[in-house]
Automatic annotation (TrEMBL):
Uppermost EC category: transferase
Transmembrane residue ranges: none
Official protein name in the record: FAD:protein FMN transferase
Binding site for Mg(2+): G149, T266
Enzyme Commission number(s) of this protein: 2.7.1.180
Reactions listed under catalytic activity: L-threonyl-[protein] + FAD = FMN-L-threonyl-[protein] + AMP + H(+)
PANTHER family in UniProt: FAD:PROTEIN FMN TRANSFERASE, THIAMINE BIOSYNTHESIS LIPOPROTEIN APBE
Gene Ontology molecular function, alphabetical: metal ion binding; transferase activity
One Pfam family here: ApbE
């Protein structure tokens, strides 16, 4: 059997630093797999970015309050997933909540008015999205969908699938810290995934061993503001329109798919320090967290490596 070598492919996508780590028998073999995987990530970004006027998502949002928009099977499947996530999270995972960005600017250092937030909460709401076979309609003017809550994780899984189709049996896909591994290292050892320290983001607070599946993290330490001594997180509760309180600085979840891990991490942050651990345990998803005081917990960590 030919010897496997590790090849690294750094790139940028979805405004994030990314990397593929692929074991292959030759540079050419690895190059072909990486090229196909990166092209798939680019395809997904082009198709679902709200920043691109030509994207499917932009077309859906432009039609808000008007006629239904015809969608393909991939988009339909993603919207069905969003519906399932909304139901299973008791409404916390709501891809129509992106409208709240209109009120919240965390670089401004200023709070929006209660009226401004309330007006936007009145616009959003996944139940207002009409999803039928091959079509979607946003029933109210001013509504919009935002795939930012899961597009990157979906792209991670898609890139991993493409690598596997190209013959890669041992590898890792990393899109801005959202991870999917294709089996362990060739010697059977786990990939060691560092979880950022919210206090020192260039350092790892925890190390998680991973031989299969995906890992995603969600946190409030990169975007927040402090006003009159109170800290306001950029993690917004779609029910109130205001930042969630009493939550973790960061929460990381392992699941068979990076998509599932990312959704669970986002919902876990919204559920907060009291409810999230039991909810994740009930789902059977391994997880770890870092609290504001630096305390760590969960059932993942360096002690498992």
């Amino acid at each position: 059997m030919a010897e496997l070598h590790l090849f690294l492919f750094p790139f940028t996508a979805m405004a994030s630093p990314c990397e593929l780590r692929l074991y292959a028998t030759s540079q050419g073999f690895a190059d072909r797999a990486a090229e196909a995987a990166i092209a798939e990530v680019d395809r997904i970004e082009q198709k679902y970015s709200r920043y691109r006027h030509t994207s499917v998502l932009s077309a859906i949002n432009r039609a808000a309050g008007g006629d239904a928009v015809t969608i393909d099977s991939e988009t339909s499947a993603l919207l069905q997933y969003a519906d399932s996530a909304y139901q299973q999270s008791d409404g916390l995972f709501d891809i129509s909540s992106g409208v709240l960005r209109r009120a919240w600017n965390f670089k401004s250092g200023q709070l929006p008015s209660e009226r401004e937030v309330a007006n936007l909460v009145a616009v959003l709401g996944w139940p207002k999205v009409e999803l039928t076979a091959g079509k979607v309609r946003l029933s109210q003017v001013g509504m919009e969908l935002d795939f930012g809550g899961f597009a990157k994780e979906y792209a991670v899984d898609a890139a991993a699938r493409v690598c596997a189709e190209q013959g890669i049996a041992h590898g890792l896909v990393d899109l801005g810290g959202d991870i999917r591994v294709l089996g362990p290292h060739p010697d059977g050892s786990a990939w060691q995934i560092g979880i950022r320290d919210p206090q020192q983001p260039t350092q790892a607070k925890l190390v998680v061993p991973l031989k299969s599946g995906g890992l995603a993290s969600s946190g409030d330490y990169e975007r927040f503001m402090v006003i009159a001594g109170k800290r306001y997180s950029h993690i917004l509760d779609p029910r109130s329109g205001w930042p969630v309180e009493n939550t973790f600085r960061s929460l990381s979840v392992v699941a068979p798919l990076c998509l599932l891990a990312g959704t669970a991490a986002t919902v876990g942050l919204l559920k907060g320090v009291i409810a999230a651990p039991a909810w994740l345990d009930e789902l059977g998803l391994p997880h770890c967290w870092v609290q504001a005081n630096g305390q760590t917990g969960g059932d993942l960590g360096p002690w498992q490596s």
